[in-house]
Design a protein that fits this description.
By secondary structure, the chain is α+β, with helices and mostly antiparallel strands. Helices cover 34% and strands 23% of the residues. It contains 8 helices and 14 strands. Strands 1, 4, 5, 6, 7, 8, 9 and 14 form an 8-stranded mixed sheet that branches. A 4-stranded antiparallel sheet has the order 11-12-10-13. Helix 2 crosses helix 3. The protein is globular and about 70 Å long. The structure holds ligand DP6.
């Protein structure tokens, strides 16, 4: 599919004002996106579980100007308070999507947004935040052009969300999403996320993700800086090739419910992501001593209990613990007794696989 697919058609309706609200989830990558080209094109395909509890709710109110403005006009409220320091990020996003949404300078927008998780939790809100905003803008576009199909609505929402933050393209639908062109995944695209199109074993329904908040501080490496580290990285090409191979491999794992192989792919992906950061120039160690302590305890417990607990990491110190529903009665008490003490103030979030964004 070409970028031109998302250029707007002439609008058939005239809308003066209105409001729309979307609640959009975060997601956790099993095969990681790390490295991008210009215009938010990923260097490799990725696949994620859509989450449920970690979400951003965004209300967009729009009021048409008497005449088209020269610039974007909007107010931004985060958790009820005017937040001018978030405005440049939104402004950059609006500039990136301007040619795909011709109405942006016709309206004054009020954006009211809040997260289900604490802002300072170290959980990135860019995936849920950018996807929620993209969905709100798409709802207005659909009012202006009501013949739009639901399929196109979701695709374009993902396309726009990607221009805000790459991983946000995977937060429109659920429960498993692939983003990035992959030779063995039919319909996959660098431009937007798609629902994973193949068979998924029952064991992956209702999968749990308990997020351990090891370090709630500001991110040491912003995602832009992080992705740039893959330019001229000595292992970049091998890493991108590995992600392609892992995505092919995970297909039979997801179909057959092969949890041992699932664990091997997911943990290797997490450690590879961190290995990329440790071997880039400049280099970073984003794990904390408690991250390692948690990983070692997960490995020990897995061996002793014969359960299928495993971990994954984002570009930070927090640990996502993944496990199937039918093992939760054994695994969750272990997390509470042995792992929560390594979290900052004991903070953790019990999340699970979810089914995508919802209009309020
Ligand atoms: C480590 O989507 O935050 O979480 O496109 O620059 O906004 P930008 O990056 P972002 O990168 C996320 C990287 C990751 C892995 C992943 O989610 O696949």
């Amino acid at each position: 599919m070409e970028i031109t697919t998302f250029l707007p058609q002439a609008y058939t309706e005239n809308i003066d004002n209105g409001t729309v609200t979307w609640k959009s989830p975060s997601n956790i990558a099993l095969i990681k996106y790390w490295g991008k080209k210009e215009d938010q094109i990923p260097q490799n395909p990725s696949i994620s579980f859509t989450l449920d509890a970690c979400a951003t709710t965004t209300k967009l109110s729009y009021k048409k100007h008497a005449e088209k403005n020269d610039d974007f006009s909007f107010d931004l409220f985060f958790e009820g308070k005017q937040k001018d320091d978030f405005k440049p990020k939104i402004n950059t996003f609006l500039k990136r999507v301007e040619s795909y949404l011709l109405f942006l300078k016709d309206y004054h927008f009020t954006i009211e947004t809040s997260n289900s998780f604490p802002h300072s939790s170290g959980i990135a809100s860019s995936a849920s935040g950018m996807s929620a905003l993209a969905l709100c803008l798409m709802s207005l576009e659909k009012e202006l052009n009501p013949t739009m199909t639901d399929e196109f609505f979701n695709q374009k929402a993902s396309f726009l969300a990607r221009l805000g933050s790459g991983s946000a393209s995977r937060s429109i639908e659920g429960d498993l999403i692939v983003w990035g062109t992959h030779e063995d995944t039919i319909g996959s695209s660098d431009l937007f996320g798609i629902k994973y199109p193949y068979k998924v074993h029952e064991v992956f329904k209702n999968y749990h993700d308990t997020i351990l908040l090891v370090d709630k501080g500001e991110k040491q490496v912003s995602s832009t800086v992080g992705h740039n580290l893959m330019h001229n990285h000595p292992f970049a090409e091998q890493r991108f090739a590995q992600a392609h191979k892992n995505l092919t491999k995970i297909q039979s794992v997801l179909a057959d419910g092969d949890l041992d192989e699932f664990i091997a792919i997911v943990e290797s992906e997490a450690l590879t992501l961190h290995a990329m950061m440790m071997t880039s120039m400049p280099y970073f160690i984003l794990m904390k001593p408690n991250t390692l302590e948690i990983i070692n305890r997960i490995w020990k417990f897995r061996q002793e209990s014969g359960t299928h607990i495993c971990f994954t990491l984002d570009a930070g110190a927090n640990v996502h613990i993944l496990y199937p529903e039918n093992e939760k009665d054994e695994i969750y008490p272990f997390i509470q007794e042995e792992l929560v003490k390594f979290c900052q103030n004991g903070h953790h979030i019990c999340d699970r696989i979810g089914f995508g964004a919802k209009k309020a």
